[in-house]
Design brief:
Blueprint (H helix, E strand, L loop, with lengths): L1 H18 L9 H15 L3 H11 L5 H42 L5 H8 L1 H4 L5 H19 L10 E8 L5 E6 L7 E5 L4 E4 L6 E5 L6 E6 L5 E6 L3 E6 L43 E2 L4 E4 L5 E6 L5 E6 L3 E6 L5 E6 L5 E6 L5 E6 L4 E8 L2 E7 L6 E6 L4 E6 L3 E6 L8 E4 L8 E2 L6 E4 L5 E4 L5 E4 L12 E6 L8 E5 L3 E7 L1 H7 L1
Parallel strand pairs: 5-9
Antiparallel strand pairs: 1-29, 2-3, 3-4, 4-5, 6-7, 7-8, 8-10, 11-12, 12-13, 13-14, 15-16, 16-17, 17-18, 19-20, 20-21, 21-22, 23-24, 24-25, 25-26, 27-28, 28-29
């Protein structure tokens, strides 16, 4: 018995040494069972997996660890297989919807597609591999899915007329407050133009500036215009225009809903220069020239009554002038960086200036003996414009992609904040309905109410809309054909008809 016990111990030691040996000889039943198991696994795998397992058999890793690795690799393979099948199903679903769009001429709610198709993806959010695959296919599918948006049969925003003639981008526009009602545009081509709203014809061209014309505003009661320029001056000039006979409006039955997001390529735009109107009369000499700034005059506006004007400049100051004498009355200093805009209150002697220093300032001239100023720090980037409403509100827009509504009686914090996906340029607020028109760097124009609720987006389809950055917007609610105007760096101004009752009804 001791001999047998000794021989048994010797065999166990020998088997233990063989289990750690690099040799693949099958010398006992345990090795034979293991080899048979490996042969069964090899028979069920592809040639690539077979080579991998043969290499693993020469590994120094223990059997249990190798088994765990094989199991993990199998799970990874199943994960990839599920994701691959899921992607095939998504592609088939998108192709089916595209076929329906082509065959039926209808559009489908994008939210439902995204909700149904991406629901399976969400279930794999814990998997890193699934997340990578979602990122890979997101770009290719999101553009298609975004086109499946519902449309409404009732058009509330409609492009009526385009005003083309400037040779460079249009920075600013305004509508006269006296008869005859005309549209004024200020352009980087060193000119300002007056247009017939109904016909789109240029009525007058002002050519007195030596630099880019950055702003245009009209006198509240007389036929005078105020323009600000990059030549460091502001000009006041008188105009006389005669409106042409209105022509029948072209077919504007192409009523495009505001949320239509079909885009067109910038390559479709002609690269050549746009020929300006050759028969348009011109003015070359200003009635009054205001000189005090040491930098670009970026904006100017009339104070209530029209006896004084305020200008804003890149020299970090705003100046208040007397129109009759052209004398500088006050220099409004305090901004740390260049000014971007200035605006006056329609009924009170209040001025608001905005700046690249992320602030805007409220200047109070109601008391002749006290000229108070309040500084508001509500933005994190350049404040591109700040405008008054008829009531007691100020609306400010910024490059930080926000628009904020403030109460003049309590300006500590905004009463509403609008967050957008693009920088906001010179905004305007309608007088009666207080609808805010936001022109964006991304060529969009959006409409919001004073509480921050989005009402509409102006159409950009069928080659309608702006092709470049939209610089400014201006309301003219008294006009029956065009009650909103926008301009941009595509060298054109556009007149829109906004069906305000329908817009507010859809709200």
């Amino acid at each position: 018995m001791p001999v047998e016990s000794g021989s048994s111990a010797a065999r166990q030691a020998k088997q233990k040494r063989k289990s750690h040996s690099l040799s693949i000889r099958r010398t006992n039943s345990t090795e034979q069972e293991r080899s048979g198991l490996q042969r069964d696994m090899l028979e069920g795998q592809s040639s690539d997996n077979l080579e991998s397992l043969v290499r693993m058999e020469d590994s120094k890793l223990p059997l249990s660890l190798r088994s765990n690795l094989l199991d993990l690799f199998s799970q990874i393979e199943r994960e990839f297989e599920n994701l691959y099948i899921e992607n095939l199903e998504l592609r088939r679903e998108i192709e089916t919807l595209n076929d329906r769009l082509t065959a039926e001429g209808q559009t489908f709610e994008g939210a439902d597609l995204a909700k149904g198709a991406l629901k399976t993806k969400a279930s794999h959010s814990t998997s890193q591999l699934s997340q990578k695959l979602k990122t890979t296919y997101k770009a290719s599918t999101s553009k298609i899915v975004s086109s499946f948006k519902a449309t409404t049969s009732r058009a509330v925003c409609q492009l009526v007329r385009e005003y083309v003639g400037h040779r460079d981008g249009i920075w600013d526009l305004s509508v006269t407050r006296t008869q005859p009602v005309v549209l004024g545009t200020a352009s980087a081509d060193h000119t300002a133009m007056l247009w017939s709203i109904e016909t789109g014809k240029c009525l007058l061209k002002y050519m007195g500036h030596q630099g880019s014309v950055n702003s245009i505003k009209f006198h509240p009661t007389e036929q005078m215009a105020l323009t600000a320029s990059g030549d460091q001056t502001a000009h006041i000039w008188r105009y006389m225009v005669q409106l042409p006979t209105p022509q029948p409006v072209a077919d504007i039955s192409q009523q495009t809903p505001c949320d239509d997001d079909v885009d067109f390529s910038d390559k479709d735009e002609a690269d050549g220069e746009v020929e300006g109107p050759n028969d348009c009369p011109s003015i070359r000499v200003a009635t009054t020239t205001l000189r005090s700034h040491q930098g670009v005059v970026i904006a100017a506006d009339w104070l209530v009554g029209g006896k004084q004007v305020v200008t804003a400049s890149w020299d970090r100051a705003a100046n208040l002038y007397d129109v009759e004498t052209s004398e500088l009355v006050h220099s409004l200093t305090g901004h740390d960086q260049e000014l971007t805009h200035c605006c006056t209150h329609p009924t009170q002697r209040l001025v608001v200036t905005s700046s690249r220093d992320t602030t805007f300032r409220l200047w109070d001239f109601r008391d002749p003996s006290i000229h108070s100023v309040n500084v508001f720090q509500g933005h994190t980037d350049t404040v591109t414009s700040a405008v008054f409403t008829v009531g007691d509100n100020v609306v400010s827009g910024s490059d930080d992609r926000t628009v904020k509504v403030w109460d003049l009686k309590n300006m500590r914090s905004p009463i509403a904040t609008i967050r957008t996906d693009s920088a906001v340029n010179r905004i305007s607020v309608s007088v009666t309905q207080k609808i805010i028109a936001l022109p964006h760097d991304n060529r969009q124009v959006r409409l919001f109410d004073m509480s921050g609720v989005r009402l509409a987006r102006l159409p950009r389809s069928n080659r309608q809309g702006h092709r470049r950055m939209v610089c400014c917007s201006a309301w003219c609610e008294d006009n029956t054909s065009c009650n909103l105007f926008t301009c941009g760096f595509d060298r054109q101004a556009i007149g829109w008809n906004i069906n305000i009752p329908a817009l507010l009804q859809e709200k």
